[in-house]
Design brief:
alpha+beta; Beta-galactosidase, Chain A, domain 5; five-stranded antiparallel beta sheet; globular; disordered C terminus
Length: 167
């Protein structure tokens, strides 16, 4: 990674952390509960009037329902053309992470997963500490937004490279 790329990532992370420190504008959910995951995803949706992106996990589970919806994108039911519904766009959120050939999976056993939505800026941050079978720890951070300036281009930004979580 070049120095310019690393600087851009560091600047974005600093900005994102400063934004979510405004508690009156912040919605935060710690942990993972499969029974309420779909409700949490709905509460953490980001949108800009053209696109709406559910606040699902980047490493989805069976309880997760990742969806992106586009205004005006409809489909019809198979049995009748009279019933239309808002059709989901392709899933662009899925993130595959492998360390030394071992794919990382979110199983919900680690309660350190935290999603934070800054309602003033529309920025969704996700932080997750993962303990691998080898005992090594990784910290994974992502940032997501639906821009008003670039309405057709939602963004997901993986944070800094996986690193050992603080002890």
């Amino acid at each position: 990674m070049s120095t310019e790329e690393r600087t851009a990532i560091d600047d974005f992370e600093r900005l994102a952390r400063a934004i979510v420190e405004r508690p009156l504008w912040t919605l935060r959910h710690a942990g993972y509960e499969p029974v309420v995951e779909r409700e949490v995803e709905s509460q953490f949706t980001v949108g800009n009037g053209l696109l709406g992106v559910r606040g699902s996990l980047e490493l989805p589970t069976l309880a997760s329902r990742p969806r992106t919806f586009v205004a005006g994108l409809f489909d019809v039911t198979h049995d009748s053309s009279e019933w239309t519904f808002l059709a989901p766009a392709p899933d662009w959120l899925h993130l595959a992470i492998a360390v030394n050939g071992q794919e990382i999976e979110f199983n919900g056993e680690d309660p350190s997963h935290v999603r934070t939505l800054d309602m003033r800026s529309g920025l969704l941050l996700a932080d997750w500490n993962h303990r691998m079978a080898s005992g090594e720890g990784l910290r994974i951070s992502t940032f997501r937004l639906a821009s008003l300036a670039q309405r057709t281009s939602p963004s997901r930004w993986p944070g800094s490279p996986p690193r050992s979580p603080p002890r």
